[in-house]
Amino acid sequence: AQNRFYNDLEEWLSGQTRLGGGGAVGDGEQTVPAYIQALLEQTADNLENLQRTLVRGEDSRIDANRRIVQLTDNLGSLSESMRMQQELLLKFAQSQLELKPILSALAEGQTNQGDDQAAVALRNIDGHLARLLADQTSGRETAVQEVRSEIRLLARTIAALAEGEEPR
């Protein structure tokens, strides 16, 4: 639409130049004054520059639109990736919540089992200590009895020796 407007404007200006300078007033053709001719040429040059600027602007706009579309696509894939990651994290959190009671039950079971095993071990230790104490006590009594009998034997031997020496 803009290009058509500038093309129409350029045609109208060139038509004004012909109309203003080309009218048959008399026998010959009347020429356009030089300053108007220079002004019209400058206007035509400016219109060409404006048209080139508009073309560059249009190219820039098209490029910007293309980049915006590409950015939109990239943002769409990024949001899709983020959504998938969020779903994965949600599933992970749910599985953690599902595992929590199971792990608690396992820990409690091991604690109970550990308590049972510790109680059995303590009972075994207690039994062994009681046997050691009984063995030690009986061993001590046996040792004391053996020492006493040895002392008695020694005393009898000494007494027999003492009796045997006196008569000599």
Q: In percent, how helical is the residue content?
A: over 70%
The number of strands is 0
Give the percentage of residues in beta strands: under 5%
Mean pLDDT: 83
Would you write up a description of this structure?
The chain is an all-alpha fold. 90% of the residues lie in helices and 0% in strands. The chain contains two helices and no strands. Helix 1 (2-21) packs antiparallel against helix 2. It is rod-shaped and about 185 Å long. The termini are far apart.
How is this fold's topology laid out?
Elements: H1 2-21, H2 34-165
Note the main attributes of this structure.
single chain; 168 residues; mainly alpha; 2 domains
Summarize the structure.
The protein has helices spanning 2-21, 34-165.
